[in-house]
What we know:
2 domains, nine-stranded mixed beta sheet, globular, AmpC-like, Beta-lactamase, Beta-lactam-related, Beta-lactam/transpept-like
Amino acid sequence: MILAFTSNFTLAATQSEYMEMRSFVRSTLAQNHVRGSVVVVKNGQPRQISYGYGWYGKKLGNGNEKVVYPVGSLQKIITGAMIVQLINEKNGTDQEFSQYTKISRWYPNLKNADEISVGNLLTHTSGIMATRTEINRGYVYSEDNAVNWLINHINASTMKPVGTYFYNNANFILLAGIIAKITGQSYEANLQTRIIDKLGLTHTYLYRNIPSSMTDAISYNWNGYHNYQNPAYVKASLASQILGAGNLFSTPMDYYHIMVGLTDGSILSADDFHYLTHIASTRTGYSGGMYLKNNDSLKTVYGNLGGTHFGNWVQLTTDNQNGLIMFLNQTTDSEAANKAVGYQILNHIKANTFIAN
């Protein structure tokens, strides 16, 4: 009887804590006029809490199992992880490479390729200054055509010295192309076998593979007076341009499982994750798709997509025990404001643990 009482009491307490957290998160989102789906992680327990509509016109709620969200730049860590997988797999073979390998091996016709290393791409220190990767060109590219367009664009653009930090989708689009060149299979095929199938993810797709029974979320503005204004979504043409750097759609819960898989051996080991996030050429703490902060106790990354109102922010303790994965589809188009909302929630999860940006 004592054991039964203890079990029931613990269950009731856990449910009570969840309801309190749910109420806090939803009220915080409401007070700040944002909408979206959030995974709150406290003491190793992830909980999804959603508020508002993922598609207002159809009254399809955020968190509905039919809705997936563009992850934006949060995809870069996944592309980086596949590069590390290949570094491990090709070690000791005639395809062996490392963070120091120059990318002229795969891109002999790319400007400065004989000076740019894989590590430079992983840390945005390639010197590549090519812009316009998120300006919709109105054409749905194949993977090869997306990479080829980018190479031509880089060759026609000004570059800074290799080693100069400049955040640029181009770096990870080139990495996606390297994955395809090394394996002889598309980035799409590698993503499916190396990430989605490995983790058993059920709500993670490249844009072109979102099932007809599901939908990608619509993004909106709060305009100071009304919700769900200025709807905008990611078009197929835009998604096809940013291969490996922003064409992935998922849910915050699936993304949490990816975060766990990056260190538990499912995707990478803890040592592999350390390698990915400590590339020698880093200048800002950004390495492989994320920033590590507070003496490596926190991992964080922000993502959005040009021409839309989405805002995604991840901040987790590096052991994945506490933190936040926040996918917003209504914002005021301010990264700082979105992070401020997330930081309120983070402090409610575990005070004096997280950082504001």
